[in-house]
Amino acid sequence: MNADLVYVVAGGSLLLAVVLPELLDRWAVSAPMVLVGVGMLIGLTPLPDGLPLDPVANRAVIEHVTELTVLIALMGVGLAIDRPLRLLEKDSRRAWAPTWRLLLLAMPLCIAGVALLGWAVGLAPAAALLLGGALSPTDPVLASDVQVAGPQTGDHEVDETDELRFAITSEAGLNDGLAFPFVYAAILLSTGAVSDWAVEWVAWYLVGKIVLGVLVGIAVGWALAHLAFRSASPALRVAERGESLLAVAALVASYGVTEVVGGYGFLGVFTCALTFRSAERGHDYHLAMHNVVERLERLFTLMVLLVLGMAMTRGLFDHLDWRSVLIALALIFVIRPVSGLVSLSLRAPDPSKEGALTRPERAAAAFFGVRGVGSLYYLAYASGHTEGLAEPWLWSTVSFTVLASVLVHGVLATPVMRRLNAEPSPSPAAS
Asked: Which residues of 99-129 are buried (b: 16+ CB within 10 A; e: fewer)?
């Protein structure tokens, strides 16, 4: 095969992804849907011959590419969120209430639901737990149609006004890192008895690494914000010059430092972005940084989906069976919606309060748990740590789940959001 054709096909496909969604907006066609579909069509031709599309044989490449894609997305999401997070203030914690509910209740319920279903259909406990952990995080890029648009800047204290979009966005930013303890639990379970690692898992993987990730992210974000906005040297105040590539430096630095000290790098990147965003919140520099990251995340995500689409018609679904379909559809239509609705509805606050959702908004937030690139990363990461989890069936199942999520959520996102936006919602009560 002529290798130059790969560039022609990739460039043409990305052009389609940029142009077609706008042209077909009335039919609710998203860029991810276009790229996956184009990739599947390309896979049916001789063009992909020789490309490394086998996920088991090319696990390391998949891990690093998806890892970078998720990191870029997390930085973008952190910069996009306008709502301040001040943990010492009750009103601020209450404004983030939907996020805490989705993370602390819905996410564990989803993991348990998928793991139990996997175990019930014959998976080994470690593989079932890995499937639950890998499919638990929501995707901050593929859910762009139901997320906040980007940082709002100006000469005032900006804040989110769309509670539904804020809930989905903030959840996607945090649950990528919080899925790691359960992936580690699957790795440990596949290599030894529970009694050998249970205490270590709780103390280090569930608590220690999360705390380190958050603290390092805050420290790096504060240091970079001080440098960019308040440095004594004009040459170092990059915000004044609008040098938006600092976003890339912040991403790499926060991830690297967090991983070196042993914390979860995904959490480090997101908390770094949130901390940086909290400095000079109305400054236009935040928008400039977000625009750079947004373009990078779109490029990487669309390329991953293009290759994923090609792999789907090039053997990735060879091990797909009824169990795979059952788990994917159960997660999308039952497990996630029920878990999300339960977590958001228990003692639900008055919808007129900040941080509260109306009943339709709770249903939408529960349903739009989009699965994507993060699930592929966790599967690649775990299979690289133990051969017992490097099963082709798991790749087929996770990939089918991502495909189903892209299609179902992509089709429904636009009409659902239009319907909700057309409905009058209660104004937040003055505090």
From this structure: bbbbbebbbbbbbbbbbebbbeeebbebbbb
| Residue the block writes with tokens 């804040």 | 159
Delimit the domains of the chain by residue range.
55-422
Closest CA to 375 of 327, 326, 315: 327
Mean pLDDT, all residues of the chain? 87
Which CATH code for domain 55-422? 1.20.1530.20
Q: Supply φ then ψ for residue 149, to 5 degrees.
A: -75, -30
Sign of the torsion angle spanned by Cα atoms 303, 304, 305, 310: positive
CA distances from 298 to 26, 82, 91, 101, 170 (A): 21, 21, 34, 29, 19
Kindly report the pTM of this predicted structure: 0.91
What number of residues does the chain have?
Answer: 431
Q: Quickly count: other Cβ atoms within 10 Å of residue 7's Cβ.
A: 10
Contact 391/399 with Cβ under 8 angstroms? Answer: no
- In the block, tokens 């039952």 appear at 334
Cα(302)–Cα(35) distance, integer angstroms: 6
In whole angstroms, give the CA distance from residue 158 to residue 156. 6
Q: Tens of pLDDT along 254-304?
A: 999 999 999 999 999 999 999 999 988 888 899 999 999 988 888 888 888
CA distance 140 to 251: 16
Looking up tokens 């965003």 gives: 277
Which tokens go with 204?
């280090």
Question: How far apart are alpha carbons 424 and 421 in whole angstroms?
Answer: 7
